[in-house]
Amino acid sequence: MKKIAAILGGFFALILVAIIVIPLMVDVDKYRPQIVKAANEQLNGTLELGKLSLSLWGKIHVGVDGLALKDSQQRQLVGVKVASFDMPYTSIFSGAPLVTLRMVQPDIAVVKGKDGKLNLMSLMKVAPSSAQTGAPANGAASGSPATNTSATNTAATKPAPTTTAAAPTTASSQKIELPSMAVNAHVGVSIEDAKLTYKDEVMALTNTIDQFNLRVKDFSLSRKTELELWADLKTKMGTDLSVEGPLKLIAELTPELSGGEFKSAAVTANFTADDLTIDKGVLFMKKKGVPANFKFDGVLSQDTLKLNKASAQFFNAEIVVSGDYNQVKGANIHFEAKPIDLNPWSELVPMLKEYELEGKVGLSGEAKGTADALQYAAKLTVENFAAKGPMLKAKPVVNAEVDIATDRIEKIYVNLKGPGNELLLNAKLLSFSKPQLTFAVTSPKGLDLDQWIEFPKSEAKGTAKKEDKKEEKPATAAAPSGNSAESASAKANTSASGSASTAGTAGSSADFDAMLDPLRKNEMAKAMTVDGSVSIAFIKAMGIRIDDIGLKMQLKNLVAALTGLKMKMYDGTIAGGFTVDLKPQHPQYSMNLSVTGFDIQKAVESQFQSFKDTIVGKLSTTMTGAGSSFNPDEIKKKLQLKGDFKIANASFKTMDIAKMANEAISGTIAKIASKVPALQGKKLNASSNGGAKYEMVSSNYTINGGFLDAPNFIAKAAPKAGVDIKGATKMGLVDESLDAKWELTDTQRVTGADQLNPPNPVGGGTINNILAKSEKDAVTFPITVGCKWSSPCVNYSASAEYLAGVVAGRLAKGLGEGAKAKAVSAVQKALGNSLPAGNPLKKLFGH
Description:
Elements: H1 2-25, H2 32-41, E1 45-49, E2 52-55, E3 59-71, E4 76-88, H3 89-93, E5 98-104, E6 107-112, H4 130-133, H5 135-142, H6 151-157, H7 180-184, E7 186-200, E8 205-220, E9 225-237, E10 241-258, E11 261-272, E12 277-279, E13 285-286, E14 292-301, E15 304-314, E16 317-326, E17 330-341, E18 358-369, E19 375-386, E20 397-405, E21 408-418, E22 421-430, E23 436-443, E24 447-448, H8 460-476, H9 482-507, H10 517-521, H11 523-527, E25 529-541, E26 544-556, E27 559-569, E28 572-581, E29 588-599, H12 600-606, E30 615-628, H13 632-638, E31 640-652, H14 657-672, E32 694-704, E33 707-717, E34 724-732, E35 738-745, E36 780-788, E37 791-795, H15 797-812, H16 817-831, H17 842-845
Parallel strand pairs: 5-7, 6-7, 23-25, 24-25
Antiparallel strand pairs: 1-3, 2-3, 3-4, 4-5, 4-6, 7-8, 8-9, 9-10, 10-11, 10-12, 11-14, 12-13, 14-15, 15-16, 16-17, 17-18, 18-19, 19-20, 20-21, 21-22, 22-23, 25-26, 26-27, 27-28, 28-29, 29-30, 30-31, 31-32, 32-33, 33-34, 34-35, 35-36, 36-37
Helix pairs in contact: 14-15, 15-16
């Protein structure tokens, strides 16, 4: 027993001496240049090592007096003052050596350069292929075979036979054989209290993580490996984003080997940032304790990844994935996100509080097959979604369901409900590369948007009244003379032209035609087809109500069509169709439209102020035409339409026709009374009531080059309510110009002109209705109207000429030729420059 004790004592003494003496005898630092050289040959950068020291107390410990690793631009990637390599004796004696790299308080800098690449990713050099160097193959063939009891080593060093051909092998039949030392060897990493810095040179952004820790226990190919990473963040990103708190990752890898061959590895991971706080002010706020984690449980083999369960949770949202992926068979994955309650999300996004979100959103699906033949399906559900908006009086409720299958959406269903409103959408889409969309929008109960939306108050009506007052003045003022009236008209037209030009310049800043270029170049858009329908009982918004809305929509080869259009509004019925070809640089379109019984006055009284300066009444019209461009000015210039219209119970908004007649007649009497004794003292006492009414205003018309031309314009006055009109009217749609040549007839005898009954110079008595061609005829005379249709100017020179001729004719009736000549001369002198050269009264007097 004493002998055994002595032997053991001697043995331990020998070991103790070796532990003391060997570090003194062995200078490990002499290997430092070789280590640095070998490392730098493999790096796109440089490795710098401080002095190496050896200690054998309790373990084999190689201390490193400082370490620095730099990238190719000499930016330091890793820097540490205290580092070491440790190998416990027990791991050596067990035949499974364990080497642990330990670094204390290192500085780790990851840089994203201006080229967009990370310095960490480009640190290692790409190993040259054997075809380029030939060294591994030649060296193995020429070297002497080494004797080794390990079957693996013998196979690795034994020269290939040269006398017989090697049997062909395939990648699938080869086995991954690992040397026993490699199988049994394992390493560890311990990084303590590191400072990790990430710098983005492109965005000029730098983020720092203090107290970064990494611990890898027993990293090997033969036993369970444990990895633990944690950090305590306290950083600011930019000026208004702060991130504070702990995060932690724990992962385990348990390999399964058989005869030195890797079979599979079970992998579990658990990442949590539940106690991390993220503050972005009113945009985002994650408090401590809000779930933010990821869990993974799977098995990795040489050709398959099996997911027992992978889940990610953030706040009250969680998605779970399970299934497997095989290199040959592809994927068989299922995922599901249980319905997420939206209401609590205002805790994370404070700005959502004012919207008072309600409802739930859910998602589930699966994917199967290889990448080139992937089959997939997904289902999105929205349950009772509602939100309050700044302009919403009520919270509409939305329920929706979307079913997605491989290369198609089999079902799109949306149901929107609210007070006085319901809208249904049913649709499906075939092929994402060549979309074929079919849909139906229906609303059996109608949409009363006034019950939902607080529309902004419009000042259009008040503004219109002011403009009407201001612009009515030129229409009601009689021109002092023919020439001055024409001058005023020219001046107004010049002003109108200038205004139109300015407006056109402002409008041309946005080129709507050019905005369609991306659509024309998009292959998917060019291949898309659409077939849909709309059927809505009514839509009411801002007091405007449209009933019985129906239409069909088609799109093919970038040609869109609206057919079967029908609706009712303002007591009228509107029907028609519209087709547009989007392919040309300036889109080409055609249309047809019919309107019956549309009440223009009601339209003006609600919101359609564009009618305020025209004619009101019950409109019926038909039109067909075509045009090009979506730019407003170009539409007016290039639109070509033809049709006809009738307006029942009509009145002019900016032209008082009866007053025009009064002014024309009174002006003529004033001019010729001094020379025609029969009219001296005669006055036209009737005045306009400012509201002439017409049973019917009608014409056929064309629109071309920005002008509306109505060549046979007729306005038939209501009984005792106006003056009849007949003639031609031309209106500029761009410059608002007006050129009307009308014949006014006082059929209803509202002007009082028929009451002018001067004494008859021949035979006594009176000449009844002297301004008419005969006693029983209505007073008729021409006028011209110019300037703008929103502020017209009237020219009465033609009226004076005509009426003077009629008076002269009635006065000269029954006189001799000499008396007739005197009457003509008197009238001509009275009218002065108002008469053109020649003798305009010739036809009346037969000269």
